[in-house]
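Pinned message: reference record for Actinorhodin polyketide dimerase
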Amino acid sequence: MTITERAGNETEALRDCLARWPSGVAVVTTMDRDGARRGFTATAFSSLSSSPPLVLVCLDRSADCSPAFDAAEAMAVHLLRDDQEQLAMRFATKGADKYAGLPSTPGLARVPLLDGVLARLECELVNRFDGGDHVILIGRVRRSEVFAGQPLIYCGRAFRSLPPAESPA
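Predicted structure (C-alpha cells):
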C-alpha cells in the first residue's frame, strides 16, 4: 500500500513504512543555561563525516529539552546496550525527571555523561538545521569511548537485541 492509497493519514502511513527500518538507540544529554541536566532518546543518529569527525542527531522540536539543545554548546551521545531499554524509555518520557537517582559525571562543557553504555561520544555542537518538526544537531566529536556489550535496536515499534555473536572457529 502506498501513502496515497492509505485513506487520509499520510503521517501514519510514513511512520508504518519507516518502522520497518532498524536503528540503534541513543540517549543524548546536555546542560541548560541554568545548570540543569537535560536529555532525550534518539533513534535518528548517524555518523556524518570522519574528517572532521561529525555526527548528527535529530530532536523533535516539541521535546521538553528542545530549548536546552537550542542554546547548548555541547552534547554527549550515549549508544545504549541491549539491556538498557528502561534507560531509553526514561529519556523518551515527556515530563519525567530523567536524572532522578541516575548518576552522571560532567564531561565536555559539564555535559552529563552516563555510565554503563555501549559507547559514548562527547561533541561540540557546531550547527543546527531545520528538519521540519525536528531540528538536526551537528556535533564535532571531541572524545569517544567504547565499552563492552551488544547494541539496543529499535524496529517495528519495539526494542530488540541482536543474536549473540558467534565465536570465531
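Pinned by admin. Summary line: The chain has one domain: 25-157.
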